[in-house]
Automatic annotation (TrEMBL), chain A:
Cited SMART domains: RAB, RAN, RAS, RHO
MF GO annotations: GTP binding; GTPase activity
Alphabetical list of NCBIfam families matching this protein: small_GTP
CDD domains in UniProt: Rab5_related
Name recorded for this polypeptide: Ras family-domain-containing protein
Highest taxon of the lineage: Eukaryota
Keywords recorded for this protein, A-Z: Nucleotide-binding
Automatic annotation (TrEMBL), chain B:
Name of the protein: Rab-GAP TBC domain-containing protein
Low complexity composition bias: residue spans: 1112-1123
An MF annotation (GO) of this entry: small GTPase binding
Residue ranges with Gly residues bias: 1124-1142
Domain of life: Eukaryota
Region (Disordered): 602-634, 834-934, 1035-1150
InterPro entries: EF-hand-dom_pair, Rab-GAP-TBC_dom, Rab-GAP_TBC_sf, Rab_GAP_TBC_domain
Composition skew (Polar residues), residue ranges: 899-911
Bias type Basic and acidic residues, positions: 621-632, 834-848, 1035-1045, 1081-1094
PROSITE patterns for this protein: TBC_RABGAP
Length: 233, 1150
C-alpha cells in the first residue's frame, strides 16, 4: 500500500468480517491482501484470526480490521461474536464447490438479518486459478463463459445474478495468484458510506452517500478494466 | 421403595419442561461414582466399592526423594479405595459421599501444589498387583504388603538380583469388620483381575518407561513408539529444555516408585511435571495423568478394531478431516510427511467413528497433531477420548457449547479477579472471548510457541481444566498495563500476540540479579498462574459453569433455531416465521422429551435389574451418565431425526385426528417390527410412566404411515426438520385447494403413476373418515343451501330430515360415502379389454345380472341401524329398508375380499370391501368397475372433480384439512384426556347415521325438488334410479329371507371389543378371511353361502349394538350411501334420481 504520510487524508477504521465454508480460502484472501503472500497449507482458523491492513482511497484512508472466522459448520454459532458491529463482510465461496455457494447464501441471509444494518457485503468466489479462465498468468483472461475442462462448478452468471438480486458486491478472485484480491477490498472501502465511519467528518455525509452509490454501480458492472489494474500491481 | 418415589419425582421434574430442564441432577449433585472416577481418572465402568482409612508406606530409595522419614521410607496417611478393577490410594481426602457435590470435594481438586486431583498415592489396576500378603503387626491392625507387576513388560532377568520388586505396605485403620470386608473385596477383585494380566502386559509394552528402565544390554530392541518426535525430532532445543537432565530425574523416579500403571505418586512426581516433561516420556505421563491409559487398558485393541471396522467408509467428518490434514501444525516437519499425516488421519477418523456425536471439530486436528508428536496413534486416540469426555467436555461438540460456556466462565473470572481490566474491556467494547476462545479450544497450542504450550499441557493433564483458566488469567494479569492502553479488539490482540512471541525472553531483563534475569517470561507466567491464581479451583470452575450453562445453551439454541429456520429452503417460505418457529420447537421438544423418557425408563430398569441382584451394597448408587441431557439442542443434537413414533407424537400435539381413540390399550401388534422391539424393552414401566409422556397417545393409522412416508423424502425412515417443514408447507402453506387435493391424491398414489386404483380409492375414503372423526375444523358453511347442494349427490343430505338434525360432521360422512361411489363411477378401467367389454352391449346386459346378486349386500353392513331404519323408512316406496340392512356382507363382498386376502395384508383394505359394496349398488357401470377382474383407477383430474363435486369435501380440502394442523396454538386435546373428545365416526353417530340412512331411503321419494340444482344434474349422469330401485327392493326381500334362515349368533364376538376404525380394519380382515375359507371358488353360489355366514355374524353383532359399534359404523357408512343411492333410485319424484336414471339408461341402452 502506498505511503499516506505526505497527505494527511482522513483515516478511519472499518471492521470487516470474513465468512464462508471451511477451506474456501478466507484466510488466504486475507493473507494475500495483508501480506501479499500465499501459503499452500494454511492452518485452519480456530475461532477467528485478526489482522489489519490499510487501504488508500483518493479521498481517505481506510484501515481494515479484519476478522477472519473459522469456516467449519459448528463454528457458525460463534460467528455473531465476530460480525458484531462489523461494517463490511466478505462472504467467500469456492467456485469449484457448489455447496460452498449455498453456505455463502446462508451467511448472506444471516448477515442481512442479524448484523448491523447497512453492512456492506461482498460475495467472493475464490480459487479462480483452478478454472480454465483463471488468471494464473496474467489475469487478463476474464471470459467466464467457457467452463470446459476446468474445475469450475459455479458459473459467474449464477453467482452474479444472485449477488445483484441481494445487492452485494461481487468478485471472482484467486488468493493464490492474487488476482482481484485488492480490488475486493478497495471496492468495499469505496462502498462504505462515510456516515458509518467512526472518524467520518460530519460535513458532506449525504454527498458521500450518493458518491458511494455511483461507485457501487461501477464496481458491479464492468469488472475487466479493474481486474487488469489489480493484477498489474 | 424410596428409590421409586425419588425416581417418580425425578421423572416429573424431567418431564415438566418448565423446571430442571437444563441443570440435571448429575450437574448439581454429582454421584459418588463420578467423583471417584474423576479423582482417580478412572473409566466410567469403575465404582467405589470399599473405602478405608489407611497409611501407605513406600520403602526408602535414593536421596532424590522428598522428606525422608527416619529411614523407614515415606509414609502417607490417606484413604484406600477399591473399585471393580482398581485399588487406589490418595492422601487428599476424598469426599465422594452421597451428598457430596464437586464443590465440597474442592480439597482434592483445589490444590495446585502437591496433589493434583489424585493426590499422593497410586492408582493400581488390580491386574497389576502380583501378590498381597497380610503382615503380622504388633498392634493387631491389618497390614498388607503389596507386590506389583512393576516391569512386567520386561523379560525376566537371569539374575534375580536385577529384579527390583516393587513392594509397598499399607496399614488399614478401622474396625476389624470393615478391614475384613475390604480384604474380602480385594481378594475377589484380584481373582477377577488375574485374567487381565496379559492385557496389561500388552498395554505397558507401549510405554516408553519400559524401554527406558531396561538394562543397557537389553536395549537393542526397538523402543516403543514415543511419537513422531522420535522420527522428526521433538520441538524445541533439547539443550535449552534440559531434556537429558529431566530424563535422568524421571528415570530415577520411575525406578524407585514404579512406572506407568504401577507408579506411585509422591510430591516429586508433581514437581517433576511442573518443570516440564522430558520429550520421550511426555506421552506416557500424559496418558497416565489424564487416565487415558486406563481406557486403553480396558480395551487395548479398540483403536485398531475401529479402524478396521470402518475401513473404506465415508462420512462428513472424514471429508472435514481431509480438508485439514495438510494444515495441522504444518510447520512441524512430521506433518509435512505422509507418515505424520497418515497418523493424524487415522486417529481423527477413528475418533469420529467411536464418537459420532462429536465427529470432527477444527482444533482437534491441532490438538491431536500435538499429541502425536509425543505418543503413539493408539495412545493419542484414547487421550483424545479422555479429553473430550472429561477434560474439555463439550468443547468440540457440534454446538461447541463447552467452549462457549468456558468463555463465559473465563469472563466472570476476569471480572472477579481483575475488575479494573474488566471495566476497561466493557468500556471499550472489546469482547474478551474473541481473544481467549482459541486459547481454550486449542489448549494454547495455537497461541503459544509449541514448547510452551506443551508445558501448559503437562500440568493440564494432571490438574485438569482449571489450568487453562489459571494460565489465561495470568496472561491477562501480566499484560494488564498494555491491555489497559488498548481500546479496541485490534490493539488488544496485538498486545497479546507480541507477548506470546516473546515468551522465551527474560521476564526481568534489566534486573541486577542474574537469577532473576534468567527467569523467562514463560516461567513468570507459570508462577503467576499457579501461585497468584491458586484460588481458581476445579470447584470454582464447576460452580461458574453451572451458573452460566443455561444462558449459554439458550443462546446457542436461539442461534441454532434462527439458522435452522432460515436455511429451510424455499418451501418454508410458505409458512410464517412464527409457524416455523413453533414447528421447530415442537419438533425438537418431541425428540427431547422422548429421549428423556427413554433414559428414565432405562435407568429405572437398570435400577430394577440391580436391586434384583444382591450385590455389593455400596455400589447401588446411581451412576449418572451424561446421557441424561441428550436431546437438548444446545448440547449438540444427539438426534435430529424423527422416527415414525416420534412423528406420531409430534402430530398428536398438533392435530386432533392424530390422537388415539383408545389410549389405554397399547396395541403394538399393528406396529412394524422395529417399533415393537423398541417399546418392548420398557413395556413394564408403562404402568406409571406412559411411553408418550404427559401428552395424548398418538393414533396409528395408515394415513399417518403414508404421510410419514411421503414426508420422508430420502426414504431414511426418519424425518429431519426440513422434511417436516416441507411436508407441512405443502399442506398448510399454500392454502390452495387444488394443491391440497393434489397432495392428498399423491399421498395415495403409491407408484407415482398418476393413478390410484381401487384399493387406493378406498384408502382415501378411509383417510377422510380418519381425519374427520373428531370433527372438522376450518371454515365450513352450514347453510341450508349448501346442504341442499351437498346432499343432492348422495341423496343423504338431500332430505329435509337431514337438514334438521345433522351436524356438519355427520354430513361429512355422507360426503365420504358419496365420494367412494363417485370415484368408482368415474374411474377409468385399467385395460383396454375392459373398455371393450363395456362398449359391448351384451356384456353390459350381463352385468346387471351379476349386479342383482351384488346389490343386496351393498346395503349390507348397516345392520344395527335396523330399528331406526324401520321407523324412518316404513313409508318408503323403495321397499322395506330392513331387508337391505340385514343382508349385510353379501355375495358381492366376496370377490374383493378374496382379493385382499390374497394380495394384501393391509388391514385397512378390508374395510374397503364394504365401500366397494356400496358402490356396487350404484349403477351398472360402477358394478363393472367393482369387479376385481376389471381393474380400474382414477386419475388426479377425476379425483379433483369428485372432490369438487361435493361442497363439504371441497371445504375439507380448502380449509379444514390444512387448518387441522395447529402449529402455533396448542391443541385442546393435548391436555384433555382423549376419551372425552367426541369422535365423529359412523359408529359414534349411531342414531344419527341411522337417521341418515333412513332418511335417505325413505325421505327421497317424498323429498321436494327444491334446492337441487346443478349437482342434481351431475348426479343424474350416475344412476339409473328407477331400475335400481326395483332391483334393490327385490334383493332386499331376498336378503331378508336369507337372513332369517341363517341367523347364527356369536360368530364374531371375539372381535367385539375393538372400538375405533383401525380395528374395523382388522375385523374386516378376519371377516374376509372367513369368507375366503368358506368359498374357495369364485362361484356365485358359494359366495352366497359364505356371505350367509358373515351375515349371521353380523346379525349377532347387531344385537349387541354397543359392543361392536365400530363394525356396524363402517357398515353404516356403506349402508348410508347405499341407501342414498337406493333412495335416489326409488324416487322418481326426485329430479336427481330421475335424471340419473335417464342418463344411465341412455348409456345402457346403447
Amino acid at each position: 500500500m502506498a505511503d499516506s504520510a505526505n497527505a494527511p487524508k482522513p483515516s478511519s477504521s472499518v471492521k470487516l468480517v470474513l465468512l464462508g465454508e471451511a477451506a474456501v480460502g478466507k484466510s488466504s484472501l486475507v493473507l494475500r491482501f495483508v501480506n501479499n503472500d500465499f501459503q499452500e497449507n494454511k492452518e485452519p482458523t480456530i475461532g477467528a484470526a485478526f489482522l489489519t491492513q490499510k487501504c488508500n482511497l483518493p479521498t481517505r484512508t481506510i484501515k481494515f480490521e479484519i476478522w477472519d472466522t473459522a469456516g467449519q459448520e459448528r463454528f457458525a454459532s460463534l460467528a455473531p461474536m465476530y460480525y458484531r458491529n462489523a461494517q463490511a463482510a466478505l462472504v467467500v465461496y469456492d467456485l469449484t464447490k457448489p455447496t460452498s455457494l449455498v453456505k455463502a447464501k446462508h451467511w448472506v441471509a444471516e448477515l442481512q438479518r442479524q448484523a448491523s444494518p447497512g453492512i456492506v457485503i461482498a460475495l467472493v468466489g475464490n480459487k479462480l486459478d483452478l478454472t480454465s479462465d483463471g488468471s494464473g498468468s496474467g489475469g487478463d483472461a476474464d471470459s467466464a463463459g467457457d467452463d470446459s475442462g476446468d474445475a469450475r462448478k459455479v458459473t459467474t452468471e449464477e453467482a452474479k445474478a444472485y449477488a445483484e438480486e441481494e445487492g452485494l458486491l461481487f468478485f471472482e478472485t484467486s488468493a493464490k495468484t492474487g488476482y482481484n484480491v485488492t480490488e475486493v477490498f478497495t471496492a468495499i472501502a469505496n462502498a462504505i458510506p462515510e456516515t458509518s465511519l467512526k472518524s467520518a467528518r460530519g460535513a458532506g455525509a449525504s454527498h458521500a452517500a450518493s458518491r458511494t452509490e455511483e461507485q457501487r454501480v461501477n464496481l458491479n458492472g464492468p469488472r475487466d478494466p479493474n481486474a487488469k489494474e489489480g493484477c498489474a500491481c | 421403595m424410596l428409590n421409586l418415589s425419588s425416581f417418580v419425582q425425578r421423572a416429573q421434574q424431567l418431564l415438566d419442561p418448565t423446571q430442571g430442564l437444563n441443570l440435571t441432577d448429575s450437574d448439581r449433585n454429582p454421584s459418588k461414582a463420578s467423583l471417584f472416577q474423576s479423582q482417580f481418572r478412572l473409566p466410567a465402568s469403575q465404582h467405589p466399592l470399599y473405602e478405608i482409612t489407611a497409611e501407605l508406606t513406600v520403602p526408602p530409595a535414593n536421596a532424590t526423594q522428598g522428606d525422608k522419614d527416619r529411614g523407614r521410607g515415606y509414609q502417607y496417611a490417606g484413604k484406600l479405595h477399591l473399585s471393580e478393577a482398581y485399588m487406589c490410594f490418595s492422601t487428599t481426602p476424598s469426599s465422594f459421599l452421597q451428598s457430596a457435590s464437586t464443590s465440597t470435594s474442592s480439597t482434592f481438586t483445589g490444590q495446585t501444589h502437591g496433589g493434583g486431583p489424585g493426590g499422593n498415592g497410586f492408582t493400581f489396576p488390580l491386574c497389576s498387583i502380583r501378590r498381597v500378603e497380610r503382615l503380622h503387626s504388633q498392634n493387631f491392625q491389618f497390614a498388607l504388603a503389596i507386590t506389583t507387576w512393576n516391569g512386567i513388560g520386561q523379560d525376566a532377568p537371569k539374575d534375580k538380583k536385577d529384579l527390583r520388586e516393587q513392594r509397598i505396605t499399607i496399614q488399614l485403620a478401622g474396625p476389624r469388620a470393615s478391614c475384613e470386608r475390604f480384604c474380602d473385596g480385594l481378594k475377589k477383585g484380584l481373582r477377577a483381575g488375574v485374567g487381565n494380566v496379559a492385557k496389561l502386559k500388552k498395554v505397558v509394552a507401549e510405554c516408553y518407561s519400559e524401554y527406558l528402565l531396561r538394562p543397557e544390554d537389553k536395549k537393542n530392541a526397538s523402543p516403543p513408539d514415543a511419537g513422531l518426535g522420535m522420527l522428526f525430532r521433538y520441538p524445541g532445543d533439547p539443550k535449552k529444555l534440559r531434556d537429558r537432565a529431566k530424563m535422568r530425574l524421571w528415570a530415577e523416579y520411575l525406578r524407585d516408585n514404579g512406572r506407568n500403571v504401577t507408579l506411585i505418586r509422591q510430591p516429586t512426581f508433581h514437581k517433576l511435571i511442573r518443570v516440564g516433561l522430558p520429550n520421550r516420556l511426555r506421552g506416557e505421563i500424559w496418558e497416565l495423568t489424564s487416565g487415558s491409559i486406563y481406557l486403553r487398558l480396558e480395551h487395548p485393541t479398540l483403536y485398531a478394531e475401529t479402524l478396521a471396522k470402518f475401513e473404506g467408509q465415508e462420512s462428513l467428518a472424514i471429508d472435514e478431516i481431509e480438508k485439514d490434514l495438510n494444515r495441522s501444525l504444518p510447520e512441524y516437519p512430521g506433518f509435512q510427511s505422509e507418515d505424520g499425516i497418515g497418523r493424524l488421519r487415522r486417529v481423527l477418523t477413528a475418533y469420529s467413528w467411536v464418537n459420532a456425536d462429536v465427529g470432527y471439530c477444527q482444533a482437534m486436528n491441532i490438538v491431536v497433531a500435538a499429541l502425536l508428536i509425543y505418543m503413539s496413534e493408539s495412545q493419542a486416540f484414547f487421550l483424545l477420548s479422555a479429553m473430550c469426555d472429561r477434560l474439555v467436555p463439550g468443547y468440540y461438540s457440534t454446538t461447541m457449547y463447552g467452549t462457549l460456556l468456558d468463555q463465559k466462565v473465563f469472563e466472570s473470572l476476569v471480572e472477579r479477579t481483575m475488575p479494573i481490566l474488566w471495566e476497561h474491556l466493557v468500556k471499550s467494547d472489546v469482547q474478551l472471548s474473541v481473544v481467549s476462545l482459541p486459547w481454550f479450544l486449542s489448549l494454547y497450542i495455537n497461541s503459544m510457541p509449541l514448547v510452551f504450550a506443551f508445558r501448559v499441557l503437562d500440568v493440564f493433564f494432571v490438574e485438569g481444566p482449571k489450568v487453562l483458566f489459571q494460565v489465561g488469567l495470568a496472561i491477562l494479569r501480566i499484560n494488564g498495563e498494555g491491555l489497559l492502553d488498548a481500546t479496541d479488539d485490534g490493539a488488544f490482540i496485538s498486545v497479546l500476540k507480541s507477548y506470546f512471541a516473546r515468551l522465551d525472553e527474560s521476564a526481568h531483563p534489566k534486573s541486577e540479579n542474574p537469577k532473576l534475569r534468567a527467569v523467562t517470561r514463560f516461567q513468570e507466567l507459570m508462577v503467576v498462574a499457579f501461585k497468584e491464581f491458586s484460588g481458581i479451583t476445579h470447584s470454582s470452575i464447576v460452580e461458574l459453569r453451572l451458573k452460566n450453562k443455561d444462558a449459554v445453551l439458550n443462546n446457542i439454541e436461539s442461534f441454532a433455531k434462527r439458522t435452522a429456520i432460515r436455511n429451510l429452503g424455499p418451501d418454508s417460505k410458505l409458512l410464517s416465521t412464527q409457524e416455523l418457529g413453533a414447528l421447530y420447537d415442537r419438533f425438537y421438544t418431541v425428540l427431547y422429551e422422548r429421549q428423556q423418557r427413554d433414559h428414565i425408563l432405562q435407568q429405572e430398569q437398570a435400577k430394577k435389574a440391580k436391586s434384583s441382584r444382591p450385590k455389593i451394597p455400596d455400589a447401588a448408587n446411581s451412576h449418572d451418565d451424561p446421557g441424561i441431557e441428550k436431546g437438548r439442542v444446545g448440547l449438540g443434537p444427539s438426534t435430529s431425526l424423527m422416527d415414525y413414533d416420534a412423528f406420531r407424537e409430534f402430530l398428536a400435539g398438533m392435530a386432533k385426528w392424530a390422537v388415539s381413540d383408545s389410549p389405554t390399550t397399547p396395541r403394538r401388534d399393528a406396529f412394524a417390527e422395529k417399533d415393537r422391539s423398541f417399546y418392548g424393552s420398557f413395556r413394564k414401566a408403562d404402568t406409571f410412566l406412559s411411553p408418550w409422556g404427559s401428552g395424548p397417545e398418538p393414533a396409528d393409522h395408515e394415513f399417518l404411515q403414508r404421510l410419514f412416508k411421503k414426508w420422508d423424502v430420502g426414504s431414511a425412515s426418519a424425518l429431519t426438520l426440513q422434511n417436516v417443514v416441507t411436508g407441512l408447507a405443502r399442506i398448510k402453506g399454500k392454502r390452495d385447494i387444488m394443491g391440497t387435493i393434489t397432495y392428498f391424491f399423491e399421498l395415495h398414489d403409491d407408484d407415482g403413476d398418476g393413478c390410484v386404483d381401487r384399493e387406493g380409492i378406498l384408502r382415501m375414503s378411509e383417510a377422510l373418515l380418519f381425519l374427520s372423526r373428531r370433527g372438522l375444523e376450518g371454515t365450513l358453511s352450514p347453510s341450508n343451501s349448501t346442504l341442499g347442494l351437498n346432499g343432492l349427490g348422495d341423496g343423504i343430505n338431500g332430505s329435509q330430515n337431514d337438514i334438521a338434525g345433522q351436524t356438519i360432521n355427520e354430513r361429512f360422512l355422507g360426503s365420504v360415502s358419496a365420494f367412494i361411489r363417485r370415484c368408482f363411477e368415474y374411474a377409468d378401467p385399467d385395460h383396454l379389454k375392459n373398455q371393450i367389454a363395456e362398449g359391448r352391449e351384451g356384456d353390459r346386459r350381463e352385468e346387471p345380472g351379476s349386479d342383482e346378486l351384488a346389490n343386496p349386500d351393498a346395503f349390507a353392513i348397516g345392520d344395527d341401524e335396523d330399528d331406526e331404519d324401520d321407523l324412518l323408512t316404513m313409508d318408503s316406496p323403495t321397499g322395506s329398508p330392513k331387508a337391505p340392512s340385514r343382508t349385510d356382507a353379501s355375495p358381492s363382498q366376496r370377490p374383493p375380499s378374496i382379493r385382499f386376502n390374497s394380495q394384501s395384508t393391509l388391514s385397512n383394505n378390508n374395510d374397503t370391501s364394504d365401500r366397494r359394496r356400496v358402490s356396487r349398488a350404484q349403477s351398472e357401470k360402477a358394478n363393472v368397475a367393482l369387479d376385481p377382474s376389471n381393474p380400474l383407477h382414477i386419475t388426479l383430474p377425476t379425483f379433483r372433480m369428485v372432490v369438487l363435486a361435493d361442497e363439504l369435501l371441497e371445504q375439507f380440502f380448502e380449509s379444514s384439512f390444512p387448518a387441522s394442523f395447529h402449529i402455533n396454538d396448542s391443541l385442546g386435546t393435548t391436555s384433555a384426556p382423549t376419551p372425552t373428545t367426541p369422535l365423529t365416526t359412523f359408529s359414534n353417530l349411531g342414531l344419527g347415521a341411522g337417521r341418515v340412512v333412513g332418511a335417505a331411503l325413505g325421505g327421497a321419494p317424498g323429498a321436494p325438488a327444491a334446492g337441487r340444482g346443478l349437482r342434481g344434474v351431475l348426479d343424474n349422469i350416475v344412476t339409473d334410479g328407477m331400475r335400481m330401485a326395483a332391483e334393490v327392493r327385490r334383493r332386499m326381500e331376498e336378503a331378508q329371507r336369507e337372513l332369517e334362515k341363517n341367523a347364527v349368533p356369536g360368530q364374531r364376538n371375539d372381535e367385539d371389543e375393538d372400538e375405533d376404525e383401525e380395528d374395523v380394519g382388522f375385523e374386516r380382515g378376519s371377516a374376509a378371511g372367513k369368507t375366503l375359507t368358506y368359498g374357495g371358488d369364485a362361484e356365485r353360489r358359494s359366495v352366497r353361502s359364505s356371505d350367509r355366514d358373515l351375515l349371521a355374524g353380523a346379525d349377532a353383532e347387531a344385537s349387541d349394538t354397543n359392543a361392536n359399534a365400530s363394525v356396524s359404523g363402517t357398515g353404516r357408512a356403506s349402508a348410508s350411501s347405499e341407501s342414498g343411492a337406493g333412495g335416489n333410485g326409488g324416487s322418481p319424484a326426485t329430479p336427481g334420481g330421475g335424471g340419473a336414471g335417464r342418463i344411465v339408461g341412455i348409456e345402457f341402452d346403447g
